[in-house]
Design goal:
The chain is of the alpha/beta class and about 260 residues long. Helix content is about 40%, strand content about 15%. α1 links the parallel β2 and β3. It is globular, with a radius of gyration of 17 Å.
């Protein structure tokens, strides 16, 4: 079984691969895909999630390898711009460490690369307590509001939420928590934009600093007024940043401050 992939604008010259966050699926990028219709867009559902939920097990390393093959097989000239959110951003970092040759420009949005002491020991009991709630619409509505999921996308969010198993959720959270900077980033020359929301936790800011230090051709920015769900909270600004970065234009400066 291969990852489920949606493809748009195959006649457009430049390819973008969109890698979604954990527990969601490719629909989270609908706003960006619509507004970037002049690009060839490839939108996979990652293993154990969305329409790839039967593909197991999920791992960041294996997903990065599958994204590499997707780019080689479907992106124009075997190369693509790549953007990832959260666990998808961790996959982008992994991809840059071992296959930078398939990436034109990269955007890493909210990638955790610093481990939280004691977090992994809490994952299994937390999942056992919360997994029954993921099947309840009232709980999904609370979570969707916290994530700023658009009302029109709630049904798809709820379908993803209620279909995930305890085993899959535990696996996703463990992969996310255990991720750290991979070897090889020091050789990556891909222009890479590191983004995080101003409302995110301090460990995310430390992660962004570490990424800027680790990837030679990178820039890091804190986005004022948003949190972890930047592309839902301000889709217009998010898409403008993507377009400008992928076309080598100046980034909008009104709400971006350098990561320090």
């Amino acid at each position: 079984m291969e990852m489920y992939v949606q493809e748009f604008g195959s006649n457009q010259p430049d390819s973008i691969v969109f890698i979604h966050g954990g527990g969601l699926s490719g629909w989270m990028w609908d706003g960006q895909v619509k507004d970037l219709s002049d690009f060839h867009c490839l939108v996979p559902d990652l293993p154990e999630q969305g329409r790839s939920k039967g593909l197991k097990p999920f791992s960041i390393k294996d997903s990065a390898q599958q994204i590499t093959e997707l780019i080689k097989n479907k992106a124009h000239e075997g190369k693509a711009h790549v953007v990832g959110h959260s666990i998808g951003a961790q996959i982008v970092v992994q991809l840059l460490s071992f296959a930078p040759e398939v990436v034109d420009h990269a955007i890493v949005n909210s990638a955790l690369v610093r481990r939280i002491p004691g977090r992994t020991s809490l994952i299994k009991p937390t999942v056992q307590l919360t997994i029954p709630l993921t099947k309840a619409k009232w709980f999904a509505k609370i979570q969707a509001k916290l994530l700023n999921v658009p009302n029109d996308d709630f049904t798809r969010y709820f379908n993803d939420s209620k279909s995930i198993t305890a085993e899959s959720l535990e696996n996703l959270l463990m992969e996310n928590a255990n991720f750290s900077l991979p070897e090889g980033l020091e050789y990556c020359t891909v222009p890479t934009l590191i983004l995080l929301g101003q409302k995110e936790r301090g460990i995310m800011r430390n992660s962004a600093k570490a990424l800027v230090s680790a990837i030679p051709n990178s820039k890091g920015y804190l986005v004022q007024g948003v949190g972890h769900s930047f592309n839902f909270e301000d889709p217009d600004l998010y898409t403008r940043i993507l377009r400008n970065w992928f076309t080598n234009k100046q980034l909008p400066t009104e709400r971006l401050s350098a990561v320090r």
